[in-house]
Fold these 3 entries.
Entry 1:
Amino acid sequence: EITKKKMEYVSQRLSECLTYEATTEAWRWLKVRGCVSKEANFVSCDNSIKTSKYNAFTFLPRSLFEQFRRTANQYFLVISILMVLGTYTSLFYSPLTPYSTIAPLSFILGVTMAKEGVEDMKRHKSDVKVNESKAIIIKEDGEEEIVMWKDLRPGKIVKVKHGDEIPADLVLLVSSESQTGQAYVETSNIDGETNLKIKQSCLSSIDEAETGGYKIKENKSVAQALIDIEYEPPCGRIHTFEGTLNLKVEKDTTAVIKLPLESRNFLLRGSSLRNTKWILGLVVYSGRDTRLVRNSREAPSKLSEMERVVNNMVYFILFSMIIVSSVSTIAYVVWNLKNKKYLWYLCYHYRQDGVPKLFDENCTSGETYSNGSLWFTFFILYNNFIPISLYVTIEVINYCQAFYIDNDLRMYDTISETPALARTSNMNADLGMIGHIFSDKTGTLTQNVMRFERASVAGTVFGAPDADPPYNLAALRQQVITDAKLNRAARDFVTIMAVCHTVVPERDLNTNELIYQAESPDEEALVKGAAELGLSFIDRKAEKVIIQAAATGGDGGTNLEYEILATIPFDSTRKRMSVVCRLPDGTIRIMCKGADTIVFGLLAGSEDQASLNTHLDAFARDGLRTLVLAQRDLTSSEFKIWRKKWHDAETSTGDRSQRLAEAAAEVERDLKLVGATAIEDKLQIGVPETIATLAKAGIKLWVLTGDKRETAIEIGKSCRLLRPGMPLAILSSKASLSELKAALLKLYHLSGASPEKDVKDKKERAAVEQKLQELRQENNGSLNNFGDCAVWQKSDSEQVRALVIDGEAMTLLFGDRATEMILFSILSKCGSIIACRVTPKQKAQLVKLVQEHVKPTPVTLAIGDGANDVNMIMSAQVGVGISGHEGLQAVNASDFAIAQFRYLLRLLLIHGRWGYRRVCILINFSFYKNACLAATLFIYTNFTGYSGTSLFSDYFTALFNFFLFLMIFYTAIFDQDVDDEYVHKYPQLYASGRCNLDLNVTLALNWIFMALLHAAIIFFLPAGALSLGTGDRTDLVSYEAFGAVVSCGFINYMNLKVLFETRYFTYPLAASGKQCERKNIGILGSTWFAAVFNTVFFYLGLYVAGAVGDGTSFIFQMLPFWNVGATILGHSTTWAITFLVIAACAAVDFIKYAIVIYFFPSPISVSIERCRLGLDNTDENGKKTKEATTQEDLEALKKNHHVENNA
């Protein structure tokens, strides 16, 4: 029912979510003689790596290029160029010297470049340390030689000893474990997985008869071997490898032994050798060709929502500057036409009667500017409308916020000793704006610590909680260890659990306890479950698995050998794993385990399938993970034929994957159903409380899992994602396509969605309306037949609703844009969504589609713990990785890392909300103060004939942002409107960021309006007070002195304005931002220190600027400002005017604050007041509430804590 066109569309949409690596390079071949590459079809690179970005020659140009990619830096560079042209050419007049902008711009660029240089120097040192590490190679005579890592090339044979790191990508030739040819490696440096992986030397499987008795087991014998190897070109796939090795020995140069190479023969650079004395490996990839380097691409660059907002504000301010400059230019032209005849002293009409002849010579040689050139003059004059220091200040603030996250002990997991980690500092504020969370289930919501709980064997369930003794796991064990012929089904069931896996057993050297190193917790749980049921996996030798069958009496047991003839591995596409093995009695059998939807399709037919389906549904309702087991016996002739096809597929080149899949399909057929396993994966501590609190914060949570629908629903209930009484709708692929569409149409109407409200684009709205009409016609007006789907009731319209959809239903509905918009209109009205049976590709696709279809576009967060979550994490605006049992792939792709899901609550509600509000204050104030400055200059132009003259001296213009830096900086790193306990009690406060209450168009216009009002007060009050001045050099109404007096009121009130916006400054602030006792406070961490510093810095700058005005300054032309600072500071009038300006501006602000708080209070304002008064910080017993931090707190939280709604 899905057309070809639709499938192409789906493929295209998937490609937008994923990155595919394609290569056109031909397969490589290499001839090795005497441990030296004699011939190859490629040019090899050395084994050095380079992670640094710059060198001595490229640092300056490349770093400058990176800095000027920012819009603000480009803007100030253009302003600097205009200033230079206006100062040193006759094109137009510049009211400011170039250094007033070049100096601060150079300082900001220098600081940022120095930071990058220091970081890159660390990378250089790390590169040198790695490249000059020592490696052992085998020479032609079989002797060993020590070389540096960077000198290795393909064709070299390397010796690696126990505990050493693999220096390049190797093909494992020989292992010290001569009996088995096995080696054990740890890949934690690559994927974070600490469990050991078993590797197989490719030469160990050679029969000595094939080599004429020649043994290849040591340095010299390997050096004498003639090796031709053909293998795939370099790529970034770390879990696969394909190649073929052709071996010749000197005794018989015509006989060629052809050996297939696969991932188990391949050692990755960066992995470490464990539990093996030594190995010999052939270098096949070096340096930039290694899997580690090819796979170490950086995560896609994410522009934070805050950066996006700031960029838009910069564009708006730039547009405003253009408008204001144009208005000023027009005003100049108009004023000049009216008053030109009176401006003879400015060389206008200087030859008229009454004008002294002195002006003739000066005006004839003077410069004249066109009216149009004044536009550039005004553009330069108002250049400070955009704050030059904003971007670098935000960077520093983000770094400090990331420091808080990294060092928050309340997000430190004591069990795994794992702290929280901010891997990307520029996304901190976005944590306070999250609208949708996409979460994996296994390992994210659950502990990923699996335990075998139940089994379905021959139509009987064993291990149910209320099972009678004949049906518990002990009874199943008894059936396994007694006469196998009488209990064949039970024995076969547990045998598959014990044999069909890739687990590596180890013995603890101290306790001799058996430890299993498994690639997944599921496999470990099944192997341990098999041991509990009487068949213990105790050893793996070469191609044999040793199973100990427990004795009936309980002591000792019998060892059984199962020869593994072939292993067909698990992957996310196959969703199953199989082994072909020879049983102790000689029978050849294929054993298979996998997802029920897959294995059922491989069965020859089974009477037990219906009952097993019932059992699987019951297991799923209890939240258990299930696998179906099946098997089939092969005849010797059938196996030989298949074995040849499998070997040919293993040794093929180019189309190996396809041929292996075809060979696997030939043997994985007509299977006999054996039973099903059920594994429990418990929820992490605090997950239900965390999800409930996130829901109260207004955040929508999506759980994306590959589990069955019933399992996902039960997990949703247990973690409070699906709360009691919550209406639940289901879109199921088990229903027919017509039933699915009918359910979709019904849900659309019940959700209250409509094209008029949800779709703004006219063309898309018409497409949605047309699709709705088509759906109505297909269902002939009947909307009551939904099959396996379920819909809400009309009475549910006032409740928070939930929806469950499976992956196949998504495939059916996705592909048509109008249908997608209908579906996401429904989803946007749901409080909780569960997507089950979804693939990693679909997880990423869902995130992309939410960002595309949900309006307004929400800030999305994806959280997961495994490699299958990487695409989802990288697709979301904010990615969070959990340091779990599935390695560090998710962490390495994320922006933030935590150890437990419950820490997400503090990450968002505390660090996210505080960080968002702090950055908002910084952004609002930065644009406010600069708008106030630009408005003051604009007002002043009315009194200068719109000549473009600046009210302030060049030194003030250059240092203006630095005079006000420390106060707003301290507020932006320390401020708290409410404490963390209060936010946890009332998570509705998170709406301030989710709904953009602290940074929006209305608020920005309010700040700009106040800037204009304050600018008028700051200018006109001093102007009115000094209107009776004589204009004498020592009079405050003179040009430079008047500007200095205005600057005093300006700077002092700007500092006071920061205090008005600060919510946490009653006492000096410690470095943690918490109010502390005075004896524990460092003065440098005090808000009052910042206020005093800013004030002293300004007045000291004012005095020094006047002192150097005698002409000694070589940066600014300060002669007109000589002695101005000392003069005005010595006048009591200056201090009186400054006080009046502060009082008047403060009065305006107080009136505004009073009107807003008393007549138009927001819920956030009310909450801040209640928190300050302590009205909500006690429980019903009068005790102060606190946040749960310890295990005991969390247990108490589960029993007693109830979060109230804030009316």
Entry 2:
Amino acid sequence: MTTLNRTPPSPLPLRPRAEQRSGPPVTNAYSQSPVVATAAGLQARGRHPTNHATRAAVDETLRHIERSISQLRETDAASKSTWHEYLLVVTALCVLLLAINVFVLAKPPLPSSVISEAAYTRGRKLCEAHVAQATVAQDPEPTRINHRVATLANTSVLLVNIEFNSEEKRRKAPNDPLLIQHATVWDGAGSRFQDMDILIAYGVILKVAPGISLSKAVKVANGYAQKVVEKRKEEGKCIQPWDKAIHESHFELLDVQGRVVSPGIVDMHSHAGMSSIPGFEGTSDVNEDTDSPVNPQLRAKDAFNPDDLALDLIVSGGVTTSLILPGSGTVMGGEGFGIKLAKTARSSVADMEVDAGLAENGNRLRWMKMACGENTKSGWDDLGLLPGSRMGTAWLYRERFESAHSTLQNQDDWCFQAENLASLYGPNKAHLHISQRYPEPLRHDSLVALLRGQVHLHVHCYQTNDIEALLRHSREFDFRIAALHHATEAHLFADVLARYGRNLTVAIFADNSLYKREAYVHSVRAAQTLHARGVRVAFKSDHPVLDSRGLLYEAQKAAAWGLEEDVAFAAVTSVPAGAMGLGDRVGRVAEGFDADLVVWDREPLRLGARPLRVVVDGYSVFQAPIVLEPEKGKPPVPQITPLLSIASVLDAYTVNNIGALYANESATLADTKVIVEKGVVTCLGAECASKGMEFNLNGGVIIPGLIAAGVELGLKEISSEGSTRDGFAATADSIEGFVKAKDGLRVGGRSKALEYAHRGGVLTAITAPSTTELVGGVSVAFRTGAEVYREAVLKQEVALHVGIGDARKELFSGTVSTQIGRLRSLLSTPSPNSPFVDVVNGTMPLAVTAHDPNDISKLLSLKNAFPKLRLVLMGGTGAWTVADEIAKADVPLVLTPIRCQANSWETRWCKYAGNPGPSSFEVLKQAGVRVSFSFESISHSRLLLWEAGWATLGDSTAVGVGKVDVRDAVGGVTWRVADAFGLEGIGRIGVGKKASFLGLDGGPIGFEYSFQILADGDFVSTLPQQD
């Protein structure tokens, strides 16, 4: 049997902290010296006064000895020998009398102040708890109980509600015994099993085997219940609800027809319930950063909001367990809170707790969040407090741990004293000889528990130097780190982390980076490197940084970039469960584990995978109709030949053996070839004569080069580092035409942002000036792969960019009404040098970012007032609600982001791609709106083709759909973008047009397909690899 994380950690190979430095000692009733509570030790210190009569007798004996010595001096030598022997005997008798006095007769006086027997007893119990840590088996016992079941039986668990504006009354989730039949089981631990049945009852997986009959299921369930009842009776505990017999009529039979059934997804880093949607300040409770940078005593559960609307959305993505953590704005943020994603009718925090049903003094799990690096040293120096540097952060760690360690020593000294006093005076009178209660200052409770191995420590830490400092602290104070979070540089440090051992887990993003310096040294292959070195890897959401509902996407991307599929899937199931100390309960489909299961509409690591049913503790909290499984795409073809060692400039080249070429919205060529000369396509078709270097695509697919619109590519590299970005445009300058992205554009120089985009197939970017104000400025279109400016720009002035909504409120446009009014004024009376002149004349598009459908309707009204206005809508989270209006106005829409989140009031209309029902794209398309797609974060540019696939998924709740519409997906990131912004010569593949296309080994939509060739004019590369 192997043990998991609830056992105290083994000591690190350094001296225990107690041997390095001792803190303030606990004192006893007789002195201010450290407690050493043995009777011999107490007497040796002379601290126990003796009985008065005995003391007098001893004094008289000593005087007699002195007289004897005096007489001895007056005798001759012979007599002296006799007297010497006599003296030894007398001395021995005196020592004996003293010993009898100390150990038998002498009684110390009672201290002037004593503690109660109850206080003493409580202290002894706490002492016993120091060493009585439970050992948790990897394989649960046959009668293992899901303690949450008894709690949930006293309320109603509710089905999730994924529609923000839904008026449907929340219905009770069924929790009948469930027999899932004909499942393909992904067990979360790296194994897959075909045609299996899964029996769940009483919140526990009771059996996983092929061909479980209904009668067998009844027998197994009732047999389990009987054993549980007998066990609980022996323990004198309540037996509900296990005393209710199960009959065949109670069972729900669910034939999943070969679909994958997996454990529920486990998110080990989330702020759901602490940063509730739709993002009100009144519900933001992630960081307590008002007074002190060190707050280990705070508890996430005290701020958790069980009515956060995000919780329903998260479970609809298959997440069943989450670790809710405080933020990273402080060095020590406080204790975390583990939850199950099952909301109850009484909106109770306690009902959602992962340890609900366990006694408060039971073996409940505890977690803590700490941080290092940039976040912890930001802002405190402005208040005159540490830390202002990493040195300050390290000192605060050591100072607070030293203080907590002193408390731990005091507790141990008290326990030692209490135990010895109980031995000396008996357990019923020991309290009369101790004057202080067990020391347990509340501010140190969490850290002392961590030092005792009772808390799972999760640390936000990115860089290798920060991680190394943390490991030093761990060794100095002998505490265990359960997981490093974010840890973008951990792959550079993999061997060191492997040697640290102790089941350390590294929880990372698959690709999210470039948002600050410590996230910059990231690799999409970090998980592979760590896994190869024996370090456990998990993926997490950091919700709402990434939507926890899409946590599986992290595993999907990692697998697409080369991580073994089963390792990637374990990274969102069994590995994070183990890091939370829940490896014996969740994260696996195995007998004895909690009944947390997901039925998927297709294999979980395929693009578009989404839950058809989510079960938490046996309750079916999310359900969608079981529909036909979408067909699997064809396997990838062999890679392109030959390969270029480096990207090269080719005067002429040919790509032949093309299986399919998506040229434009109406033409798809099969079994064809493409000829390029001097950067221009000169021939398309099977009969074209090859020119220059020939590339064999082996039956792969060609699509136009992708176009990213409205992003900040070329204007910023690291979001939080001002020196790497152009800056922010002000409305006053933009109105007069002074702010143009072409003037701030920078290319080349090994920019990671541009490399990510180019290697991800984004050959062209339309970049607008960065701004937080009403008017941003004029965008530029450029080649992401260009190394020098003179070769980069494709169109110097593309569109004038404006924003409406809360994010664009400024000093002179502080309300939405002012924004709309000012925009109307700028269109009515533009300044002579302003780009608004070109906008009103129709020679330049006006690209307006807006999300609220009310604002979109106002903008459409403005267009009607200016007949030549070429309006382009961007953002458009709520656009689907006014789809008919947009279509009637014939206004194109760039849907951004594709996988929206309702993180603000004006984005509460978010209709997430992947949920049941028609997607926002489907609604817009059916209305006739010309929809294209883009993204917000520059680090996500390499995902654009996958995101387009997500956006165009059909409604999986209707029979026969659910497949990616390839032409819509491709067009949404190529020709429809070019049309919206009036870009000529790109976005389509045709004779006489600039060569801008991508070759893939199949698909083109799907994680299994990869880019084989990128053709950007005469600049060609093969097998581009993401870093």
Entry 3:
Amino acid sequence: MDIDVEMADATIPRPSHPASAGLSNTLIKKSANAGMKGRKRFNKDLSDVQASLKTSPTPTLFGLRTAVKNGDDEGSFILSLSHDGQKVVELTYLISETSDYPSDHTFFTYTDSPPSNAGVVKAQEAIAEREGMTVQDEVVELAFAVAKALSLRGLPSAAWAGGATQADSDDELEDDGEEYDPFEGMTDDEDTGMMNSTTLPKKLNYSLLRQHFHNIVNCSYRPGVTSFSSDDYVLTISVPLTSLTSESTSKPQSDVYIPAQALMAWDRRLLEHPYHFTLLMHGLGGVYPLKGQALKFRVGLTKGGYKPNREQAREASRKFGLVKEDTILVPPSADSLEDVPQYVAEEEEDDEGHFERFSLSDSLEALLDQKFLRILALRESHQLTWGGAEKMFEFVEGLQYSPEVVAATPNLWAQVTAAESTERLRARELPYDPFPDDPTNLPLIAFTYTLRRLLLCTDFCVVCHNELQLETEGEVLKPYVCKKDLCRYQYYVMGAGPSLEYEIIHNPATVDLLVSLCYVAAVEQVMDEPWPTGMAIRVPWSEVTTATAKLPPKRSHHTYSMTGNNYNTVAPEDEEVKTLETVLGRPATYDVDEVVDFDKLGKSQMRAIVSVFLERLPSVTEMRKHLIQKTRPGKTKPKLADLDVPAESWNLLRWVIGSCTAYIEEIRESWEQIGGLDPSWRQFRFVVGAPDKEAKFQGEFGKARKSKPKYPSTYAFHGSPLRNWHSIIRHGLWHKEIAHGRAFGNGVYLAKEGQTSMGGYAQGSSRAWKNSTVGPLTCTALAEIINLPEKYVSNNPHIVIADNHWIMCRYLIVKCASLQEDEEPIPDPSSYAFPDSSTFNPTPKKKPKKKKVVSKPQLFAFDPAQKITMNNKSLEIPVPEHRVNTMVRLMVEEEEERGLIDVDDEDRKVFNWEEPKDEEAKKAAKKGKEKVVIEISDDEEDDVPDWDDDGPMIISKSNSTSSTSKFGSLKSKLTSFASSSSKPKPPKDDWKHDAAWVSKCTENLFPPPVNAAPSATNAVQRELRSMLKEQKDATSLKELGWYFPEEFIGDNLFQWIVEMHSFDPELPIAKDMKEKKLNSIVFEVRFPPTFPMSPPFFMIKSPRFLPFIQGGGGHVTGGGSICMDLLTANGWLPSYSIPAVLLQIKMAISNLDPRPARLARDWDRAYNVHEALEGYKRAAATHGWTVPTGLEMLIR
């Protein structure tokens, strides 16, 4: 019997057998176990699924008979799917950590009978990539994927499942007629929470919530509450973005603003509509004040209102949706690519309260979810400002020091003090800080902190959130990543940097241009620093040699001779092409196709591989068309990974976009364009140049203003071959290489007449990215230069400037193959027909609005002696600031015309709440106002480490201004993270870490493993957090028995150093170590790319043990590896944790049977990884154990 099943809150086609809908409802309705977490919730969900299947007359999902039973181990279960009496697949599920269930866990699977169907295999592989799936959701998800792979009937309609042709889909929908709602007949408490009334949760302290709402309003922010059921609601706080700009007529409590030009550089949408910048808090559990919730935050933009509407709020607080194949409403036709206009604007949402994410949403949410509460705890415990608390937290997290150690370390505390001083100096530039005056108002504190980090986003790394260090004294105008390798890897590879999807949808022409310029630079052999290294790109050697052979010889470049106008040819460097032996660092095996690390290739080889991977990208038009497919509400949107493109190509595309530190946008409006240029040239604006160059240019601009206050700068053209522009837009113009000679001196050559640069110097290329739509033929820059001609190297007939800091590209003018068919020819901007609000309206409405006149664009004021021309005709350059200032002014006028948005019924109930009249209720309300209880769930231990079990957090509401009570009394689980006073002090004779000993033992480490799957990376990161958490929580390292030295955590997470210590002093090995004055046994742990399905490889680095054949023991092989069934394919289980494995290894070393472990005479001779591997293989062969597949890859 076939059942159509869909998660969450949408209607689906009626099943062919409605009588079986009970199983559907049982599996997909909102779980009655929502109040539980961890192991208890997992076991209850599992038993509920089993009960549902057992009581169902025919337990069938999507045509597959479904069975679920308990596994052999804790946290495991077995899911079996059969069809026509034949078992299709049987998988054993293991959960990563039951304490993380149901939100932050991952399922891993294995099977004794691998499926033969490739689609079923793919469905199994996808399990480990999903996070936060309940048992119910996972059963439905796998059943659907397997049924789809087998092309079974009973799947949801092909219109969104992709299982039939368009004609079949239409017929099926016509036959079904009605729609089936699986939640029909349920009460509000049973359904998905989409309530139609404004009934608020009953467990709210409305007196306190009203007080907090009024305080929020007093700060010029807008609070809001949206309820979904009696135990589920969200809180929001927002502020109009226009109130934060210099053009605003109303501001929050502090005199703070963000320059409108900076907002445009961060995200072009921020000033396209009158948005409210909104913080949404969810996971509140229907309770206020906050008590035991796992708080989560969402940051975005609310359109047309002060808070998201109910549907959008529900959507924002969801954790996941169905896979993309289940969600497309209308499958694209075969020729849809031609049907969709290229680079069309995304369809606007007309509904008010639409909640949208923007480019900084991910970074801000990660900061709030992972760090905010802990930084807040440090503020209270050490009476710090936000700046000081952030700096202390940086040391606490990065160095794994306690706050007291940081405070007692002079050089660290000096940096905290400096951060405190900086924070106080710029206090007037930042939002009002409510914490000293209202420490119980967590929503207001969270919002002002979020707003503060938005204002300072260019000062902090978007990945690690620590202070951004750049080699510049000026202000960075674009959020960027710091120089740490791990941050750069996450920024470019792991999706923490610019969203490709966002850039492709909203800036397609720029993406096309950047890819085209990178491709030309690569194939013409001029590409140089920066390289796309550190991204774990690996390629077959055969592909390297084939691609390199197709490239032309590297161009010779020229150096200027200071003795005259001649220049000399310099041969290419020797490192352009490397041999396979050089790349591998060992003798090569030519009978197999070696896979090599991109980072170790020669420069020409790197260029060749870059060109190959770019060629495999589809056109930006095709990418965009795929991404803007409509999906059902609550479902996962299409992603680039859905396309059949190598992962290396996507990573390279991320690098192309992310490494461009300038924000480049195409100028589409005629009134914004440079007047007097041929319409066949497409114009791009550099909203901000490369950060370090921009800062230095502004310094020179300030100096020039002293001598020329009216005209400190001017403009000039610079032409350069197309192959050079990939570098120019990252570094600015320089004169390191010479292509055309330097008859008028050494420096950068510019021209006042545009045709001079465009006609001869702006050369094209014989090679082009084949999928480009923009099709750049030549490029010319229009640069702003310092107007001090008397200090130029030459001023006639060409401008020659030796100081690169005097030049900053502002416009890129691109000659294209042809105008796009969907674009009208650009009118001559010199006439400037200025638009009114009917053509320039930040928020289009269905009803026509009163027209507003847009003022004539302000033009750049040229020095009469330094005007620029094109074919001897003057050019007019609009001042870029005029555009954004106009946009802000129009939005402010629209907001003023619309008036203040009234509160809705739910918020009105909070604002109008009256105190209870009976005496007992008054006492309860009074008691509720005196303290706010915040408990951090034990299930969130990864997010908030180091909690004790003494009790809840009490935040005092005293308004005393004394230095102690001013900040309240956060003596709770939060302060247990900030202060070690709540944790028992370690014993005086506790074991002490000796960094010098560990450093000596690890002097000659073999390079770390290079292969890693996403699921393995997630698993290793989880183990890393668990290790650090357990180590920090330990009251005594001596009792713990092992130590994970944080200073030896390298850039590669797949190679660890761990110490084992504090053995029973009566053991022979302990006596040997004491005699040799050895502090610990130092282990190296190497993780395979299939972890946790395969075991890690443990080996001792030092000291050397006495081999078994010489009388030694302790389960240590002659090569230093561990002889244990646990660490082989036979005994390993994915549910094993590293701390548990370390305990087992220590017990094995301590075991006196058959012989005790002893140190060898040459104990100070370190083991190497090769002898460890050989010893491991010998032990496995002796005992008949299976060596894990791919073990040799760990030492390559």
